[in-house]
Amino acid sequence: MEPENSHPRRPTIKDVADRAGVTKATVSKYLNRAHGYAMASSTKERIRAAIQELNFQPSPLARGLSRSTTSTIGLVVADIRSQFYPDLVASIQSAAEAAGYTLVLGSSGDDPDRELDIIRSMAHRQVDGVVLVAVRSESDHIEYLRRRGIQIVLASRDLPELVADTVVVDSFAGARTAVRHLRELGHRRLAHVTGEASVKPFADRRRGFEVETADLTGDGPGLPVEVTTSTLEGGRAATHRLLDVSDPPTGVFFASDTMALGGLMACADLGLRVPDDVSFVGFDNVAVGELPGIGLTTIDSDAVRVGEQATELLLKRMLAATGTEAEPVLVTRPAELVVRTSAAPPR
Amino acid sequence: MEPENSHPRRPTIKDVADRAGVTKATVSKYLNRAHGYAMASSTKERIRAAIQELNFQPSPLARGLSRSTTSTIGLVVADIRSQFYPDLVASIQSAAEAAGYTLVLGSSGDDPDRELDIIRSMAHRQVDGVVLVAVRSESDHIEYLRRRGIQIVLASRDLPELVADTVVVDSFAGARTAVRHLRELGHRRLAHVTGEASVKPFADRRRGFEVETADLTGDGPGLPVEVTTSTLEGGRAATHRLLDVSDPPTGVFFASDTMALGGLMACADLGLRVPDDVSFVGFDNVAVGELPGIGLTTIDSDAVRVGEQATELLLKRMLAATGTEAEPVLVTRPAELVVRTSAAPPR
DNA sequence: CTGTTAGCGCTTTCAC
DNA sequence: GTGAAAGCGCTAACAG
């Protein structure tokens, strides 16, 4: 009849203190005041031994409560399901873990309101920092975090204004490279499939496309540009609209690989072959693009490095969090062309 | 010269109490004792109003400290980068979120020791439950959690013994279906590529392969079975070994789509065409298998439902956590064949 | 150098 | 029905 027959209580700082013949305070100092410092080495040694013998680890919860710091960072992505995130998430996760932080994951499903909810909930759980792959283009959620003293860094997607540290790839230059590649292959009838206009990298890629095709003209006033949701299905539908006409474009630049993969499906639907009938260039360099049977020519978004660098910046902010807020930093990484087989000279 | 110029303090339960003219204790009761119950409705109303006006939310940290419960669940996967996880992670994440839990993510990179570390760290952070896609085949980590009263459920990979609630797909039956499909197409020279022998689903799939091919014979004593790491590169290498011989098999059953994709790369390397030269059947039904140019015939692992059901089971355990431990439950979901284009009759 | 004393924000007996 | 008080495990002045 002993309800205390439950799980053995974990040792607390008090147990360590008793065993070492000192006070909690002293143990706490040992734990926090970065070892060196002023403390009798005999005491240090006794504490060390006690900790070791008891296999003591301070409770993150209790520590968090009194320090208002949790060794936790939040990662908010638009949609984990997307082809693009695995590398990004993996690199952030391991960088965070390496620094002793635990990752809390949220996926907004591309819904700006949910994104805000997730951010609120993370703030509420007192994460020390947030890596955000932003869906909403306003910066209210950023302000929300900043007001609460939570550091933030934007990864992969920048916002119209530089309101926080940001690590992205050079979308404008990358897009130009992509388009030039198509032009060098001899394509003149070009088209572009892009995602949500509010997402800055998409806007930049579109601008890149337009700049590099300013001298060309399509049926109407300019070359065709299809705006769609940045999903596989979006890309598929847009490509249908683009290609299922008389005299379709011979080269298409997609603002993301995911949409380009949708484009491949559309071609299968329409009985068109890539690159024989139409050439594709994507953007991101997702892993599947490399598979034979896909061979997607694309621009590398360098997700791994973006994730690593974003995490680095965040950790730096979190340490420096004291005192004057430094100006936001924008890191723009080069976006390189990866040539595979989906783009070839037109017939 | 005011260092207090920092971030505005969040309201605490004390603030609410003062504003409502009651004590913290009463507010706490209001918060926890599932509303109904014994409390003057005027008091209830005043508390409600105060909470509302102050926009108060109880601190999860403080609550966690005093209740030893954190509304947090840990998800440990073998390798987020793998093609297979996005659906699983996404479905677990949304099921958890829907139930008011926050997801803490860990990726072991297929390393059993890291897996244990991650689990220790999560236990230490006092997650209320863990969804585990296990790497190690022993059950020491499960015992570790159980000893600390942390609920656990295994998703996607079962262990040799039923030591915890488990949700998997029927690997043995699925494998038999896959092999029968190849046989019905007319293949007799069959081979199998499988992953780490210690992973039970792989063992089961292998058994399925063997049972369904017991009447067939290869060059040696039985049909060729290649064991490799369950990665793209593993599948690629194994396929090289398998096909780069005189008189190679005409049909290959892969224990995972990821390995099958590696197999496709190997074919590209060797100048073989699928399904003209060799037929492939995979296992899992990852999203990319659906792309034209891939068209992988496979067995559906139903990651979304597995994730959902695993989360359901876990939540149930977490609620029932009191009293007698119910026996572990094993949920085996059907594994259905998805016919695409990678398997066809042999020439 | 180490100990004393208050908290951090919430929950939970036990009285009234 | 509500309040007083102690405590969850740790940190952080301030003394001495």
Task: Tell me about this structure.
2 copies of one chain form a homodimer. By secondary structure, chain A is α/β, with parallel strands linked by helices. In chain A, 42% of the residues lie in helices and 15% in strands. The first copy, chain A, has helices at 13-20, 24-32, 41-54, 60-67, 85-98, 112-124, 140-147, 171-184, 200-212, 232-243, 257-270, 303-320; strands at residues 72-77, 102-107, 129-132, 151-155, 165-169, 190-194, 225-227, 251-254, 279-281, 298-300, 330-333, 336-338. Chain A has a 6-stranded parallel sheet, sandwiched between helices. In chain A, strands 7-6-8-9 form a 4-stranded parallel sheet, sandwiched between helices. In chain A, strands 10-12 form a two-stranded antiparallel ribbon. In chain A, helix 9 links the parallel strand 6 (190-194) and strand 7. In chain A, helix 1 packs across helix 2, helix 5 (85-98) runs parallel beside helix 12 (303-320) and helix 8 packs parallel to helix 9. The longest helix of chain A is centred in the C-terminal third of the chain and has 18 residues, at 303-320. Residues 1-5 of chain A have low confidence and may be disordered. Chain A binds a DNA duplex (16 and 16 nucleotides) through helix 2 and helix 4.
